[in-house]
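User: Predict the complex with oxa(dethia)-CoA.
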Amino acid sequence: MSTFARIAGLGHHVPDRVVTNDDLAALMDTSDAWIRERTGIVERRFVEDGTTCTDLAEVASRAAMVNAGWEPGEVDFIIFATLSPDLYFPGNGAILQHQLGLGPVGALDVRNQCSGFVYALSAADAYIRMGMARKVLVVGAEVHSRGLVFSDSGRDTAVIFGDGAAAACVEAVGPESGSRILRHALHADGKYARELCILKPGSASAPYVSNDHIEAGLTAPYMNGREVFRHAVTKFPAVIQEVLEAEGLEAADVDFLVPHQANLRITEAVRQRMGLPEDRVASNISHYGNTTAASIPLAFSEAVAEGKVKRGDLVCLAAFGAGFTWGASLLRY
Ligand code: UT7
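Assistant: Here is the predicted structure with oxa(dethia)-CoA placed in the model:
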């Protein structure tokens, strides 16, 4: 009998501390008007001292498990997507396993930045379908605020990114279940690896990291915003079309689209290209900024909590970001 996977529940968690555009304008040459017009961001959340990326993930995971009706001890695998892990190594998956007090279940870390959650979900789906796992905790979480440069030199990225976490409980279901993940499409083009990256620490040149690297800004994110934007507005619709066509569906069939929250202008361009009304497309970038691997599950979790997504709805998740990597998942919630 074939096995499928479904999202049994979602949960999210953001830090309490709200940082407005004006707060950032006090630190660097930027303005509320520039940030709103170019990105749609009004405010974002930053962690307080002492809170780690895994701490945010732990709260989000516990919320997701409550919503799914799971006991923590039932989790048999963790997949953790982040670009801002607590440590250079090991990854956050193992740290979360410990913080949740789980037995020695497997923990996989995914480094696919903005498309991290879609890649992680596809892996959970595959593990479940092949019988390797039955209850997989899939997490996307970021603490960007500690890696940004809050001065004029870092303003192009400092105003965009925010902290947050979200998790999905993905479980095995039988072929009779109408609630199931349908398919994924995943892509990468490493020709553009250095258009959006953090160069150091890294083993491409010695040493991994030095004071010179820090002074030269190599430990801060670099982003060629225009180039990323140009690719994003074409890759999002193409990969959404790819998963829909493979299922014999079209844009109008999508009950709810959850695009990665990179820029309101990108989300709007994709929404208009698909001919979807605003109430069928997730948009929370105004409150949280770009939370990278957390962005899709955070927007999805909020939409479910607000009643915008119901069981049985056709939901499409779509992402584009560093790598470049991009992808889409199609599911019946
Ligand atoms: O999730 C990961 C993927 N990331 C993305 O998808 C980001 C995609 N790209 C974007 O969202 C946009 O390119 C940005 C929001 C990053 C930038 O918007 P833009 O309209 O492409 O602006 P730009 O980079 O072309 O910069 C326009 C001007 C420049 O000044 P000049 O050269 O015209 O004098 C920048 O120096 O805005 C300046 N600028 C700023 N001004 C005020 C750059 N950052 C800022 C800032 N505040 N924070």
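Residues 4-173 form a domain with the Peroxisomal Thiolase; Chain A, domain 1 fold (CATH 3.40.47.10).
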